[in-house]
Amino acid sequence: MKDKRKYLKFSKGMLLYCGCVLVLCGCVNNNEPMPEIVYSPGLGRELAPPKMAELEQIDENSYTNIPRAWLPPSNVEKKWTAIIIHHSATEKGNAEIFDRWHRENNHWEGVGYDFVIGNGTDSGDGQVEVTFRWRRQITGAHCGGTSGNWANEDGIGICLVGDFSSKTPTERQMQSLVKLIRFLQQQYGIPKSRIYGHRTTPGARVTECPGDKFPMSRLKSMLSY
Ligand SMILES: [Zn+2]
Q1: C-alpha of residue 160 to centroid of ligand 1, in Å
Q2: Cα Rg for the chain, rounded, in angstroms?
Q3: Whether the Cβ atoms of residue 176 and residue 127 lie closer than 8 Å to each other
Q4: Could you report the per-residue pLDDT of 148-204, keeping only the tens digit for each?
Q5: Cis ω for the linkage preceding 210 (within 30 of 0)
Q6: By CB neighbour count within 10 A (0-12 exposed, 13-18 middle, 19+ buried), where does 193 fall?
Q7: What distance in angstroms lies between residue 93's CA and the mean position of ligand 1's atoms?
């Protein structure tokens, strides 16, 4: 009798346990894609993954195929509030070449921008290069003269290779720029009104950058907010 009761108790326990296991398995085995978990290398300890699940809820489509390098390490991530667009004012170039120029001519720590978008000369057409400034989430050196240096402190600097005083960016450059900006807008809640060409950045020194042929209104029309 005692044994039978014990057995019943055990069976109930097993049923409960199996139920729980099934429920848990069900959660994992549905067809929802699991958010991609990226661990940032660095301090030799495991870092919290980026807030992908949260972001996917805002706009799933824009978060497909985002290169890992665009995601900043979460332990040093800054709160960026603006995006500032530049041209290189040269026909050719890439992040490495600008890095050398900025070191040698300006005596900076390295290339002033966070991202460089190639035009098919010294890097791929539409290729987005991520610089050390973005990887380390440090102040930029691309838009001087603003009050409290806000544009370098809080603005993300994107440079497109090319001289847009005389010609327009390539279609692939524009596609990559839009994709990158959409990602940054969602990551930091930056509205269209906080996306500037270098020369229209409030407080910036007088410059032609990013050139008369840079299609700013077309760019804005390709962004949703
Ligand atoms: Zn510029």
Answers
A1: 10
A2: 24
A3: yes
A4: 999 999 999 999 999 999 999 999 999 999 999 999 999 999 999 999 999 999 999
A5: yes
A6: exposed
A7: 15
